[in-house]
Design goal:
Helix content: under 10%
Shape: elongated
Structural class: mainly beta
Strand content: over 45%
Order of helices and strands: EEEEEEEEEEE
């Protein structure tokens, strides 16, 4: 079992920055990827950024050049640095932790942290 907790959300003006943090605990052996997703009201959850166990990264086109995902493996943390925020970035942001167990991929989610971009 893996327990995931996000933090760092809040209200920020357009053009501002926020840094989201995600802490994971439990059996993290065979972690294969960590990611950030977001869900705005009335919309489906979408991938924002993902980082693999080999530190390769991928981003949604809408956040490329503005957001950066990083990880601290020693602390079992993953971060999302968000710069040049736009109102359309407003959403609940969820951390996703993916591991391989007995040949099966298991995915764990946090409860989410709200990001609101507004003047």
């Amino acid at each position: 079992q893996v327990h995931v907790v996000e933090s760092g959300g809040g209200l920020v003006q357009p053009g501002g920055s926020l840094r989201l943090s995600c802490s994971a605990s439990g059996n993290l052996f065979n972690t294969v990827a960590k990611g950030w997703y977001r869900q705005a009201p009335g919309k489906q959850r979408e991938l924002v950024a993902v980082i693999s166990s080999g530190d390769s990264t991928d981003y949604a086109d809408s956040v490329k050049g503005r957001f950066t995902i990083s990880t601290d493996n020693a602390k079992n943390k993953v971060y999302l640095q968000m710069n040049s925020l736009k109102p359309e970035d407003t959403a609940a942001y969820f951390c996703n932790w993916k591991k391989l167990s007995n040949g099966e991929y298991l995915t764990y989610w946090g409860q989410g942290t709200q990001v609101t971009v507004s003047s």
